[in-house]
Amino acid sequence: MSEFHPNRQSKVKSRLGLTKARIFESWPFLIWLGVALLGFWGYTRGTVFSRMNGAVDVYQENITPTEDGRLLKLYVQRGQYVEPGTLLAEMDTKGYRTQLAGVLQGVAANRNEEIRTLQRQELSLEKEQRDFEATLAADQGKLDPLLESRKRLLNQYGGGAASGKGGLNLNLNSLAAEKLDPLNAEIGEIQGRVPATQTNLKSVKDSLTKLEGIIADMRKAADLAAKATYETINTEVLAGLNDSERRDVTELTTFIDLCFLKTTKGGTVDKLEKEAGEYAKAGDSILRVVADPDQLVGFLPQEHTDALHVGSDVWVTPAQDRHQIFETKVVAISPRINSLADATSPLPNRRLYGRDVVIQYPRAALPAQKGGPFKLVPGQTIIIHTDKPGDIPFMNRVFHNDDINAQ
């Protein structure tokens, strides 16, 4: 009987053939070993950073007085939405207003006293003006008859038509010269004095005009200061004050301005700390306003510093509802390293080190209309993803790695 069997392998007659036969017999185990090695390589290829914890930034504005005083009025209620610059509360300004009224009345009194001094100067200048006008009139009254007398003498002695350069007849006898010399001397004296008198008169008139303008301005300033109040003080009133008075008035009006407590950023009135009529010290919180959210803040672990840059796209999901996804961008990364308590570590006093990352508030999370609800509210916990949620790399799907969710 033959020893041939269809399933029996032929005998291997060489070492190479033996090796090939063993490999062929073990190929299922080799395939599984290759798959295991590939999985191990994918698992241990390094930590993949894909998300971090964060929160919607909260800007709380504590409305506080700068000086001690009594809270006069509250103009808002808790939960009310207010625009930037809205008047929220008013401190009692009676003391400052009384001081301001005293300063303004003092200004009016000072201007009136200065007016009286200037009026005395005005009277003195008016007297000088009258004196110069009288002197000018007297000289003119003398000059005209003297000129007429000289004209008659010249005609009498023939000095009218045949006169030389000096205006006198060259053939006048000594008698004519004796009569004309004193007359010419007096005429020359008066004619020399008149221009000086006219110049002085003009100067006095100009000084009077200027002084009258100053007095008019002072009367106006005194009247404005006497009637002025905090509400009516303007540039015109301030223009009528000297430096010291302007400094006092400006200081008091500034104190009154600070008694009107306003919000700078606006938002929602979160809490009322004082009631109308209560006494508040400087720095005490009267009320608190939570501004509309305008940025998100995340914590980037130090070992993943290179994972994000300014301008990087990120996706934000609320911690309690991960079906909502908002796309936005990184606007800043803090240069300072902070530390947080590591709540995941079983060891006590363990801390995580990293940097704060500022994320732009997503446009899609803004309210549909002004004053409406925000989809991400201040203080809300969020998760910031570096990859769009749902886009998981193939290797990470096949070989799950807990490090992929490094916080």
Provide structural commentary:
- This protein is of the alpha+beta class and 407 residues long.
- The protein has 7 helices and 15 strands.
- The chain has a 6-stranded antiparallel barrel. It has a 4-stranded antiparallel β-sheet with strand order 2-9-7-4, with no helix packed on it. A 4-stranded antiparallel β-sheet has the order 6-5-3-8.
- Mean pLDDT is 83; it is low at 160-170 and 399-407.
- It has helices at residues 15-25, 27-43, 94-156, 174-227, 235-239, 243-258, 394-398; strands at 51-56, 60-63, 69-74, 81-82, 87-91, 260-262, 267-272, 279-280, 287-290, 295-301, 313-318, 326-333, 338-341, 351-360, 381-385.
Task: Please report the total strand number as a whole number.
Answer: 15
Count of alpha/pi helices: 7
Q: Biggest sheet, strands in spatial order?
A: 1-10-14-12-11-15
Strand count, sense and barrel status of the largest sheet are:
6 strands, antiparallel, barrel
Q: Roughly how much helix do the residues carry, as a percent range?
A: 40-55%
Order of helices and strands: HHEEEEEHHHHEEEEEEEEEEH
The shape, in one word, is: elongated
What does the average pLDDT come to?
Answer: 83
Distance between the termini: 76 Å
What share of residues are in beta strands?
15-25%
What integer value in Å does the Rg equal? 51 Å
- Low-confidence blocks of residues: 160-170, 399-407
Counting helices, strands and paired strands, the structural category is alpha+beta
